[in-house]
């Protein structure tokens, strides 16, 4: 995994305001400023039927179930013959046919970027399909959690509204950033292909590629890295939802403290 991490990464806390401003841009900053002003001027009313502690517990449990489901979906997608046939990892036969059809085997000179891109294409399709699924499912979960916590307190309702606006503003930029990952994977895959294709015969068969795809083969290990990256990407995508969930414990604690300060009702 360390091969994917640039060596010159700066500490994320430095120049945060400048970096955040670059992320959202002028139009996004104006949109967020407008939403913030509207929230400050509007008194939002919580759902009076919701109890903070009970609602927070139910919402947190729903989030954890959804997260486990997403993790399981990623793991299952790497199991042979699982999922949509169009989005599965290639079998040795399919990969062999792809290499033959696109001329990957015919290229003699290693290090050709176009050959790397062509050879990697089945894995690019697989990875980007997983990314699209994650984006769709996490956006749905984020919207659902936001709607649920809106009924707990005025502060939670404001947080939900602000989060929805921030999500829309940052969506193009996050899509752009996550799109870099398949490019890094392509580069890693190309290097592995150059290093191992010299072991092939002049007329490779699908059985030759089967050794590459075995769990301890270089493509099998490469797929382990892809799975780890998808799980890390999931955690990044879930950060805004996790932040809202963490705010629930703060709301419940504040309500509990307020009840203690009030003491028992006196007639």
Structure in a nutshell:
This protein is mainly α and 267 residues long. It is built from eight helices and no strands.
Radius of gyration: 24 Å
For the largest beta-sheet, the strand count, sense and barrel status come to:
none
Q: Count of DSSP helices?
A: 8
Order of helices and strands: HHHHHHHH
The end-to-end span amounts to: 66 Å
Class of secondary structure makeup: mainly alpha
**Strand content of the residues, in percent?**
under 5%
Uncertain runs: 23-30, 32-36, 44-50, 252-262
Helical percentage: over 70%
User: What is the average per-residue confidence, as pLDDT, rounded to a whole number?
Assistant: 78
Shape: elongated
> What is the total tally of β strands?
0
Please tag this protein with its features.
267 residues, mainly alpha, 8 helices
């Amino acid at each position: 995994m360390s091969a994917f991490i640039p060596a010159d990464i700066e500490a994320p806390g430095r120049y945060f305001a400048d970096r955040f401003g670059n992320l959202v841009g002028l139009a996004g900053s104006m949109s967020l400023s407008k939403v913030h002003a509207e929230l400050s001027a509007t008194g939002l009313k919580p759902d009076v039927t919701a109890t903070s502690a009970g609602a927070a517990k139910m919402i947190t449990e729903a989030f954890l179930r959804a997260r486990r489901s997403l993790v399981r979906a990623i793991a299952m997608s790497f199991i042979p013959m699982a999922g949509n046939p169009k989005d599965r990892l290639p079998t040795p036969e399919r990969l062999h046919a792809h290499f033959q059809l696109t001329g990957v085997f015919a290229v003699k000179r290693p290090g050709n970027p176009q050959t790397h891109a062509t050879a990697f294409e089945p894995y690019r399709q697989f990875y980007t399909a997983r990314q699209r699924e994650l984006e769709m499912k996490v956006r749905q979960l984020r919207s659902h959690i936001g709607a649920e916590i809106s009924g707990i307190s005025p502060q939670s309702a404001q947080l939900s509204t602000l989060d929805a606006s921030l999500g829309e503003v940052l969506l193009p930029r996050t899509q752009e950033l996550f799109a870099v990952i398949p490019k890094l994977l392509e580069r890693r895959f190309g290097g592995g292909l150059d290093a191992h294709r010299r072991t092939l015969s002049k007329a490779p068969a699908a059985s030759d590629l089967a050794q590459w795809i075995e769990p301890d083969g270089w493509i099998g290990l490469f797929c382990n890295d892809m799975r780890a990256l998808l799980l890390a990407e999931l955690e990044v995508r879930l950060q805004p939802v996790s932040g809202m969930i963490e705010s629930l414990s703060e709301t419940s604690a504040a309500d509990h403290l307020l009840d203690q300060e009030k003491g028992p009702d006196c007639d």
